[in-house]
Task: inverse folding
């Protein structure tokens, strides 16, 4: 699942250094940097007050969503895609981070930008606790155990009003940068983008290291991994911790973006959406995580646009599209997961690699 | 301590537990036959109950005819699901199989909400008398019916796997797929049949719950309650599923009793099965009757 582009035959890597590069060549690195810079430039005219908008607030809102959900999904992909530990309770860790950051801020008064990674660490600690039983069980049993964790932590959120504000929810402070409070979406986007870039670089780097390779070995064949001297217990728990850290940071960004966190937001449907993101994007692919998140965020928007386009037509009247759009969105999520698993089990990342490879190898097919 | 209340709760736990047992049985059936963990088991109940409700109220068919019609529909539905969705995934890693059933589960849940609305709908009255006195306890006749139906299903399961040819073929497939195949058992057929039976039996449970409490999307929560039951009983044991279901039903109501009498936490009944689930996974992950997988390095 993981791995770079298919290379033309005869193109071998001859050093460990070459095997560890993030990007295959200088051109793809420049492309990647250029794309990030381009995206970063989009909201800039609005922030500087130049009098025109390249993107409106709605699109910036979607971009911020992709950022914080993408960070959390990346954590899940490290856990599921790279280590092979199935988790159906990722949303509660995301939620824990969302509550932890305002909680830390209210109790210590540290700057919000410091609270966000601290919330990640706090969530990682909780993830480690849940990871301890996970070290003993695997596969299906682990899936069911994390399902139980989902319900237990959801119940905890409703109960622990000192932490979450209970049914009333918690208020989150806006982010302050150099004494300037950030309220506008266009400005917050840069905070989210900064965290996203750092977190994705960290994950890419992790996967090049000894620990990253150990995680992949645990996924591919845990018995062989243990024989080769990899401490299974340590790496299984570690991957839970890393996954929760990412979820916590994503959740904290979510909390400070919305300014208000309610306990209902972190239900099992969100957990399933996270799983859907990494499956659609590609298990064990960092770039794929971002693609899958984008797909999952845009899917409801496309549904809405479709329903609006059909407004007043016969199909609309027959199916009652406007009032049932919420159900249609849920159905689309379910259908997308099922269809991807049947027709494209390696996800969008695999499709993207195929497209690139066919360009590179043209006109020969190998 | 309120003894009568406790006994009432335990009886209720047994009645609900029998329903969990039936659903758990149909879950284990699929797992044993085709190694698929069906996260969409609760949606089988939901679909069965809604279809039956629709046949009875919108089409005005009497219960004795509508019930078999639901059965037929669910059998076809189960086979279609296996052939169209699950068959292409044979041999894929476990995460794919789990995720595809989760995907199906949210798809059908939303579809049912879309088609039938989000509000609870009562079944048409089936019994004349509302409740029967039994050993000094008032028991609603729907509960009595539910217990009788559960017992019937359990006996039918036992007969089916003990004596019928198809049942024996299914056991053979569960025991050793390759050996069964070389003895002339059609494994494809066994997979399809196991999904059909599982869908039908779950639908019966769905209709029973629907008659007792009304039909709503809350029915699909039974599919999640199944996990504590099957883990407690052992994932691949049908007897374990029944016993696990009964135990979870009783434990849940005892938790409710403790909650009401002493703790006053509120929703312990809903959450207790999951605590039990985690504890079992920690101390005895293969359950009471499950097969132990032994692997050492």
Result:
């Amino acid at each position: 699942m993981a791995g770079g582009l298919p290379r033309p035959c005869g193109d071998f890597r001859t050093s460990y250094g070459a095997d560890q590069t993030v990007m295959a060549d200088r051109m793809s690195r420049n492309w990647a940097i250029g794309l990030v810079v381009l995206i970063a430039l989009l909201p800039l005219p609005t922030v500087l007050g130049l009098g025109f908008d390249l993107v409106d607030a709605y699109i910036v809102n979607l971009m911020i969503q992709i950022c914080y959900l993408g960070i959390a999904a990346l954590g899940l992909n490290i856990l599921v895609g790279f280590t092979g530990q199935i988790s159906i309770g990722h949303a509660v860790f995301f939620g824990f981070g969302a509550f932890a950051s305002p909680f830390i801020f209210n109790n210590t008064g540290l700057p919000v930008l410091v609270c966000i990674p601290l919330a990640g660490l706090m969530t990682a600690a909780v993830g480690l606790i849940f990871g301890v039983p996970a070290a003993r069980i695997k596969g299906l049993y682990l899936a069911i155990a994390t399902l139980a964790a989902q319900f237990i932590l959801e119940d905890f959120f409703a109960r622990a009003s000192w932490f979450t504000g209970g049914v009333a929810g918690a208020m989150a402070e806006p982010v302050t940068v150099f004494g300037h409070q950030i309220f506008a979406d266009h400005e917050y986007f840069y905070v989210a983008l900064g965290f996203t870039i750092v977190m994705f670089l960290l994950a890419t780097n992790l996967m090049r290291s000894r620990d990253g390779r150990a995680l992949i070995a645990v996924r591919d064949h845990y018995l062989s991994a243990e024989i080769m001297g990899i401490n299974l217990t340590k790496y299984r728990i570690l991957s839970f911790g890393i996954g929760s850290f990412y979820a916590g940071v994503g959740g904290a960004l979510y909390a400070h973006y919305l300014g208000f966190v309610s306990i209902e937001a972190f239900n099992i449907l969100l957990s399933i959406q996270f799983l859907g993101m990494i499956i659609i994007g590609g298990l064990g692919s960092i770039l794929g995580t971002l693609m899958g998140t984008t797909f999952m965020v845009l899917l409801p928007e496309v549904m809405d646009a479709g329903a609006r386009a059909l407004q007043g037509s016969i199909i609309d009247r027959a199916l009652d599209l406007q009032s049932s759009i919420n159900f249609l969105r849920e159905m689309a999520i379910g259908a997308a997961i099922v269809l991807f698993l049947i027709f494209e089990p390696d996800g969008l990342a695999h499709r993207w690699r195929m497209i690139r490879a066919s360009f590179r190898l043209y006109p020969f097919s190998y | 301590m309120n003894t009568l209340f406790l006994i009432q709760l335990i009886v209720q736990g047994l009645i609900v537990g029998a329903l969990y047992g039936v659903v758990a049985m149909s879950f284990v059936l699929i797992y044993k036959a085709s190694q698929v963990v069906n996260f969409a088991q609760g949606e089988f109940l939901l679909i069965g109950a809604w279809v039956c409700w629709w046949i009875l109220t919108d089409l005005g068919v009497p219960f004795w005819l509508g019930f078999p019609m639901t059965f037929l529909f669910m059998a076809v539905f189960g086979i279609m699901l296996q052939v169209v969705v699950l068959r292409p995934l044979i041999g894929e890693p476990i995460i794919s199989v789990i995720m595809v059933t989760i995907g199906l589960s949210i798809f059908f849940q939303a579809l049912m909400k879309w088609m039938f609305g989000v509000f609870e709908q009562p079944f048409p009255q089936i019994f004349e008398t509302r409740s029967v006195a039994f050993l000094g306890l008032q028991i609603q006749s729907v509960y009595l019916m539910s217990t009788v139906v559960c017992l019937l299903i359990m006996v039918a399961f036992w007969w089916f796997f003990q004596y019928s040819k198809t049942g024996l073929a299914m056991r053979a497939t569960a025991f050793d797929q390759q050996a069964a195949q070389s003895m002339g058992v059609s494994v494809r057929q066994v997979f399809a049949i196991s999904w059909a039976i599982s869908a039908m039996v779950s639908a019966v449970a769905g209709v029973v719950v629907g008659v007792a409490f009304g039909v709503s999307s809350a029915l699909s929560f039974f599919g999640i309650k199944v996990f504590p039951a099957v883990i407690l009983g052992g994932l691949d044991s049908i007897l374990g599923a029944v016993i696990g279901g009964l135990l979870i039903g009783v434990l849940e109501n005892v938790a409710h009793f403790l909650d009401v009498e002493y703790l006053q936490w509120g929703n312990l009944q809903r959450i207790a099965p999951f605590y039990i689930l985690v504890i079992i996974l920690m101390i005895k992950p293969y359950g009471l009757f499950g097969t132990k997988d032994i692997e050492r390095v």
Summary: Chain B touches chain A through 42 residues (CB under 8 Å). DSSP finds eleven helices and two strands in chain B. The two ends of chain B are 52 Å apart (CA to CA).
